[in-house]
Amino acid sequence: MSNVSPDKRRKMESALNQLKKHTVVVADTGDFNAIDEYKPQDATTNPSLILAAAKMPAYQLQVDQAIKYGIAKGGTEEEQVDNTMDKLFVSFGLEILKKVPGRVSTEVDARLSFDKDEMVAKALKLIALYKEAGISKDRVLIKLSSTWEGIQAGKELEEKHGVHCNMTLLFSFAQAVACAEAKVTLISPFVGRIFDWYKDNTDRKSYEPHEDPGVLSVTKIYNYYKKFGYSTVVMGASFRNTGQVKALAGCDLLTISPGLLAELSEDHSVVTQMLNGEKAKACDLKKVHMDEKAFRWEHNEDRMAVEKLSDGIRKFAADAIKLETMIKEKMLNVKNGK
Fold first, then answer.
1. Residue 182: how many other CB atoms lie within 10 Å
2. Which residue in 116, 122, 143, 155 is the catalytic one?
3. N or C of the chain: less Cβ packing under 10 Å?
């Protein structure tokens, strides 16, 4: 191997391994058995991913144990289902933490997206369940929708409780600025869903990675954060292809589905660092402030972001309801001794 030129060695090295030199790679899945192979640093989950995993035969033990826990906690059926859901999300997180050296992101119910106090309470409940299982809050990121209320919940959790937050469903520059000013730990701007919107709502149906609207959005946010020295880090999310991933090499973190991780591990093209904190300082972005009025106006001016945020909340809420329905049926079977 020592006789091989650096260029040739790079060609032999997978795109995934090259990417890891510039960016922290995170696995975007609830299927913790799919994680081992790609050696990510962290992992992220959401209600849709947990629903998909909970339907798999391999994970019925986690589902059954969560149901037993929910029943044992007592209360109304609604309280039992709520406790089961929380336990299930944390159970998947615990299994994931056995596979990754870093952190897992666990999401607060999207139906709470417009209630700051309820989001804070749910986040603290999830953190308490992790603590009961022996996991420090430093290994958990609480995912919150990037509504104004969600961002303020993140601010309170970080400032008052030392809970690290991952602000999700982020589509607009206004959301990104508000998150930075709230000093949350991390944001997850959605590349693929921005791309989807432009494909569905304009005549343009394909983009080169460097002109992809989702890639451009994350690049602008990253450059703004680095230029003005914000502590919040950027984790690009929701990718549709490996071109989008490689176009953001150098971003603080990228969360990638197992399918795209597999493609990157088989890809031996050269990956070049595209985002760079030092270069970002030279960009011509101006600093802006985002109080609630400015946030609501600026976000509202971005039709794509308004539609994708509301659509994302609805979809996550719908999958949470599907998961609850599945749990209720299984709970009934357990109570009836089936």
1. 22
2. 143
3. N
Residues in the chain, overall count: 338
- Rounded to whole angstroms, the Cα distance separating 89 from 319 reads 13
Question: Which residue, chain included where needed, has tokens 């790679």?
Answer: 25
Residue 1 pLDDT: 44
For the question of residue 183 being annotated catalytic, the response is: no
Q: What is the token pair recorded at 284?
A: 């011509």
Kindly list the distances between the CA atom of residue 158 and the CA atoms of 46, 107, 183, 221, 301, in Å, as whole numbers in the listed order: 20, 16, 8, 21, 29
Q: Which residues contact 337 (CB under 8 A, 6 or more apart)?
A: none
Task: Pick the more confident residue, 19 or 338.
Answer: 19
**Tens-digit pLDDT profile for residues 11-22:** 689 999 999 999
Going by pLDDT thresholds of 50, 70 and 90, the confidence category of residue 337 is: confident
Average pLDDT over residues 39-65: 96
- Which amino acid, 26? V
**CA distance linking residue 62 with residue 70, whole number of Å:** 12
Would you tell me the crossing angle of helices 292-300 and 303-335 to the nearest 10 degrees? 100
Strand partners, 107: 143
